[in-house]
Amino acid sequence: MSLTIESLNHQITDGHGKRQLLSDLSLTVGQGECIGLMGDSGSGKTTLLNLIAGLEPIQQGQIILAGVALAQASEQQLSDLRKTQLGIIFQQYNLLSSLSVQDNIAFSARLADRYDASLCTALARQLDIQALLNQYPLTLSGGEMQRVAIARAMSAQPQLLLADEPTGNLDDNNSSCVVELLVKLAKSHNTALVLVTHSHNVAAKMDKIYQLADGQLTLVNK
Ligand SMILES: Nc1ncnc2c1ncn2[C@@H]1O[C@H](COP(=O)(O)OP(=O)(O)OP(=O)(O)O)[C@@H](O)[C@H]1O
Fold it and tell me: Is the keyword Nucleotide-binding in the record (predicted)?
């Protein structure tokens, strides 16, 4: 199992006082399994990703990522886990503008001390970005930037990929292409994927779709 969430509760304090955002939420994601996470704006999808990434403290319940219980992990263990077991893909790509495409792809792998030149070459080929390797991010289209971001996230061979609206800035054609590549890569590398999206078309490409509402996840029929 790549990810297990057990009875997670999470409260936030906003202008209206305390609010229970996640309520006794549980989820398991197996190796290579691709999960779509949908839900209204403000339902807590990004907060759930942040908790899985160890970026927000767990208030109650447990998250086990790659065998590590996050609630008991030290800051150092969480940081190591993020470097070696997690790939994160954002809507805004978050590429490093001063690094070439090639160096962006290698970046996560070097950080995790897992650089493998042949894997980086294979990822570039699978994502059809070989011709862009010496270019810089600002010269790329949105779809190209997101394919580079996917290669970068995969280069460290993580157990789990988190993607927060990765196609939010892309048109329908690019969006389909990027998501299909993402799922194909996740499957071929046995990497689990949790992808947040507002698009039913994107979610339909995942193995399972969950709807987050009232702090709970419900499996949706595709
Ligand atoms: N640290 C925090 N303190 C107070 N409120 C917070 C905090 N983090 C998130 N929130 C609130 O929690 C709610 C859920 O936010 P979150 O970003 O997780 O929702 P979302 O489902 O990802 O929304 P969207 O689809 O719009 O991106 C929002 O009302 C947000 O304002």
Answer: yes
